[in-house]
């Protein structure tokens, strides 16, 4: 008998194709060095005061606990509070994989606390921290349409007020999509409901922002009826599922 996680995963699979890894991942930055090293060669360009001279080592003074990053270092622009602003710009690189994947947290102020992808100097992808929380979690961009084009990454902190900071770590190119990510090619994402079952918060995210959410009694043993999330405003766009404030993984969804 399938659990609600398995049923939700099957609903997502009905909307998404299964990705296959065709080549090794390319690590762009892991922020484990004393300065902002670009792993393929070179360094990031620092402007302003928000980034200091190198990666942070976890939480800053007077900051809530920062977690979810890998290793010891990360970008954390809460160096002396939310008042500092600036940008961190990568060297130019050629897009060689289908996805850019990264860990991100902090403020969710679009255009102000964000990670941007630039092609020909124009922002073509942008992501913010998820839900004004210090925890970093995985997001990705599908960049297959820009294969073999030159690009740059830019971390932006232009907000000097509450949650005016951004956390980023572990940026890589990959051909493998994150679990729980799908392209909205159908009208609805159906959710199995069982009356009296435990409530779960199910959210859809687009580039780190919650665009749909439902607090529902997801079926644990038997489905009484189906609820749905309307996907029509996001046709052709990539969305990610979060359950109970955590990004859904294959293990959680198929347990």
Distance between the termini: 11 Å
Q: What is the CATH class of the largest domain?
A: Mainly Beta
Main pleated sheet: 6 strands, antiparallel
Which of globular, elongated, flat, extended, rod-shaped describes the shape? globular
- Unreliable stretches (pLDDT < 50, length at least 5) are 250-255
Give the H and E element order.
HEEEEEEEEEEEEEEEEEEH
- How many strands? 18
Rg from alpha-carbon coordinates: 19 Å
CATH topology heading of the largest domain: Jelly Rolls
The CATH architecture of the largest domain comes to: Sandwich
Fraction of helical residues = under 10%
Provide the β-strand percentage band.
35-45%
Count up the helices.
2
Number of domains: 2
Task: Return the structural class.
Answer: mainly beta
Mean pLDDT: 88
Explain how this protein is built.
- This protein has 255 residues and is mostly beta strands.
- The chain has 2 domains: 4-18 and 180-253, no CATH class; 26-174, Jelly Rolls, CATH 2.60.120.200.
- It has helices at 4-15, 250-253, and strands at 26-29, 45-48, 75-76, 86-89, 93-94, 99-106, 113-119, 122-128, 133-142, 150-157, 166-174, 181-183, 188-193, 199-206, 209-217, 225-230, 238-243, 246-247.
- The longest helix is centred in the N-terminal third of the chain and has 12 residues, at 4-15.
- The termini are close together.
- Mean pLDDT is 88; it is low at 250-255.
């Amino acid at each position: 008998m399938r659990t609600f996680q398995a049923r939700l995963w099957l609903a997502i699979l009905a909307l998404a194709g299964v990705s296959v890894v065709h080549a090794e991942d390319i690590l762009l930055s892991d922020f484990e060095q004393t300065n902002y090293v670009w792993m393929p060669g070179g360094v990031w360009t620092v402007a302003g005061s928000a980034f200091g001279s190198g990666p942070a080592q976890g939480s800053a003074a007077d900051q809530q606990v920062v977690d979810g990053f890998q290793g010891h270092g990360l970008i954390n622009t809460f160096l002396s509070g939310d008042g500092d602003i600036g940008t961190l710009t990568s060297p130019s690189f050629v897009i060689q994989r289908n996805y850019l994947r990264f860990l991100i947290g902090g403020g969710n102020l679009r255009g102000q606390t964000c990670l941007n992808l630039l092609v020909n100097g124009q922002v073509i992808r942008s992501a913010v921290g998820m839900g004004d929380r210090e925890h970093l979690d995985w997001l990705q961009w599908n960049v297959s349409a820009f294969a073999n084009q030159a690009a740059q990454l830019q971390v932006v902190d232009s907000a000097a007020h509450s949650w005016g900071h951004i956390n980023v770590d572990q940026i890589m190119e990959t051909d493998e999509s994150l679990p729980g990510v799908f392209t909205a090619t159908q009208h609805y994402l159906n959710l199995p409901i069982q009356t009296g079952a435990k409530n779960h918060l199910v959210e859809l995210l687009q580039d780190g922002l919650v665009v749909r959410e439902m607090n529902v009694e997801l079926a644990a043993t038997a489905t009484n009826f189906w609820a749905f999330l309307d996907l029509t405003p996001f046709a052709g766009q990539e969305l990610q599922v979060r359950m109970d404030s955590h990004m859904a993984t294959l293990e959680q969804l198929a347990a």
